[in-house]
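Practice problem 4.
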């Protein structure tokens, strides 16, 4: 009211409407509005009355149940102006219901406030913002429905009900037929980027192996691993797939089709596959164990353990890898993992002498964990003495007591371990001290020396 209209009853009088000024600011996002307002008005006494109001509104959208909105405000100012308002709205299609409650604060006693209701019908077509909101909600619904059918690599998973027939062909090893079915269904599935990624993976497999023999048929070991790797690759589990492909290629190094397929899969997965050197002559598991031995000799126990874990991922029941993995875990202080590895190896070991050694090693790991000793190998009873004629001057040799450790062997091992320790060769020193504990699990000197080496290696 910049003109300040005169509302006097007579022409000789002047009664202009007081000047009122309002300043406001608002922030609006897709589902929220925050606003503030400042009101300035000339008071009857000649001063200026000031009032400030802050308000906010939050909308909770849904796809088919309408939009629910909550709003509220607080106001304060001169002349004991205090006010609180709250309200809500519900909008579905073009119909909107609104409710508001206004309560003055600090005014006349027993003031109960005001309630207001409104019903609105919106005519015309949807606005641009409403159309954008609807599109975003549709995209959100699509993402929510397909989230459970995404693979770790971002490709569409075959457990999606829309891909049931494609999954059936892939499970049977008919990768080319599965890819053709996916292309035929592309019009109904696109523009989903996960479907595009799945199509690329199926095409990569089908280009080298249009069909593979299904499970249960007579296949070689490398063919079984290849089939499993192809399924993992299609499912988006790239790390596991590339490791299996490298294993299959190491078992069939002369197959150029397999080698080229591994390279193309590695490019799509952005993972450089492992390759066994041509002059090695054995598989990937044996090569990983060899790499572990090299790191072990350099006292790099974490890397040695990592190579063994990669080997055990390919062959979980590899006896050599289990034994060595237990030793690395023990040296690194992982007694629980060492115990688990040695117990599994004990169940696979068939050699009686090695079973005795493994049993003592598991008992030592249990002792570190404060657990009772486990299986004890039966001690064979000494054979009965056979009477034999002997010269009168010959002194009969005193037999060793059963179960008593060889003191000389222990002293020799301890001295060798101490020499290796003084030279800085902690790996060989630890091996000698562990051999002592196999012979005498309660040898305190060997225990302390081995614990000292473990601390230095960490």
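Answer key:
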């Amino acid at each position: 009211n910049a003109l300040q209209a005169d509302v006097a009853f007579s022409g000789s009088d002047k009664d202009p409407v007081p000047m009122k000024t309002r300043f406001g600011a608002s922030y609006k996002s897709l589902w929220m509005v925050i606003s503030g307002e400042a009101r300035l008005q000339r008071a009857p006494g000649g001063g200026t009355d000031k009032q400030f109001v802050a308000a906010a509104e939050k909308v909770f959208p849904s796809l088919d149940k309408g939009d629910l909105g909550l709003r509220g405000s607080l106001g304060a100012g001169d002349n004991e102006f205090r006010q609180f308002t709250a309200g809500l709205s519900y909008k579905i299609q073009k119909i909107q219901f609104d409710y508001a409650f206004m309560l003055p604060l600090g005014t006349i006693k027993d003031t109960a406030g005001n309630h207001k209701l409104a019903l609105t019908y919106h005519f015309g077509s949807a606005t641009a913002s409403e159309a954008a909101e609807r599109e975003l909600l549709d995209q959100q619904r699509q993402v929510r429905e397909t989230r459970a059918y995404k693979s770790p690599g971002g490709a569409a998973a075959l457990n999606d009900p829309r891909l049931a027939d494609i999954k059936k062909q892939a499970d049977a090893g008919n990768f080319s037929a599965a890819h053709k079915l996916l292309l035929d269904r592309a019009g109904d599935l696109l523009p989903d980027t996960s479907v595009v990624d799945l199509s690329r993976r199926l095409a990569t497999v089908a280009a080298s192996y249009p069909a593979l023999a299904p499970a249960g048929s007579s296949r070689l070991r490398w063919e079984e691993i290849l089939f499993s790797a192809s399924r993992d690759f299609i499912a988006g589990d790239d790390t596991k797939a590339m490791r299996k492909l490298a294993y299959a290629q190491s078992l069939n190094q002369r197959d150029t089709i397999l080698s080229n397929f591994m390279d193309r899969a590695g490019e799509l997965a952005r993972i450089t596959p492992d390759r066994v050197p041509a002059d090695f002559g054995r598989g990937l598991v044996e090569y990983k164990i060899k790499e572990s031995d090299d790191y072990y000799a350099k006292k790099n126990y974490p890397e040695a353990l990592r190579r063994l874990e990669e080997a055990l991922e390919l062959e979980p029941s590899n006896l050599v890898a289990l034994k060595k993995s237990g030793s690395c875990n023990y040296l690194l202080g992982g007694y629980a993992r060492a115990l688990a590895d040695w117990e599994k190896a004990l169940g696979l070991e068939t050699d009686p002498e090695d079973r005795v050694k493994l049993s003592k090693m598991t008992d030592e790991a249990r002792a570190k964990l404060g657990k009772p000793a486990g299986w004890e190998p039966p001690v064979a009873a000494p054979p009965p003495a056979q009477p034999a004629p002997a010269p009168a001057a010959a002194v009969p040799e005193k037999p060793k007591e059963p179960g008593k450790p060889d003191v000389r062997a222990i002293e020799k091992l301890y001295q060798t371990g101490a020499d290796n320790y003084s030279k800085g060769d902690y790996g060989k020193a630890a091996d000698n001290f562990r051999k002592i504990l196999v012979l005498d699990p309660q040898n305190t000197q060997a225990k302390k020396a081995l614990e000292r080496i473990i601390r230095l290696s960490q």
